Amino acid sequence: MPASKSPVDMALGLPRQQLEWALSVHQTLNGQISMGTPTSKDSSGVYNEFSQDNCTGILIRIGPSGGTEQKYNWTTSGVGIPINHGLVDQNHNPRQPIGFHVVDSDKQVSVYRTVAPDTTQITLAPSDATATVTVYIF
After folding, report:
1. What residues make up the domain containing 119?
2. Which of 23, 30, 48, 138 could be 42's S-S partner, Cβ–Cβ 3.0 to 4.6 Å?
3. Statement to judge: residues 15 and 40 lie in one domain
């Protein structure tokens, strides 16, 4: 499929709201969707901090029990840790996540929710507290 033509070329002929919508569709069609941009690496060279991009979720790196290089660290296997997710809806009101997905790990590990999430936190636990994982909360 060829790339879409940029709506900016037609900017003078479109109302502002229609131009914003067209730009959003243009970005989507051209593959400019990103879950987050890495902003920092840990000592092993793995990204451990991310800025939020144009998806509504957030990437969080969770380190092993006793670690110091991640914002969040497991305590023990099977024990959940609360993670402040900061998700908002289209009106910028806090919203509850609908789930999460492990996008990277340094070993085989299961991550699961221990209590129902709310508009500020999701509580996740590992099957192995020595694992380092990146989760996408959406």
Report:
1. 36-137
2. 48
3. no
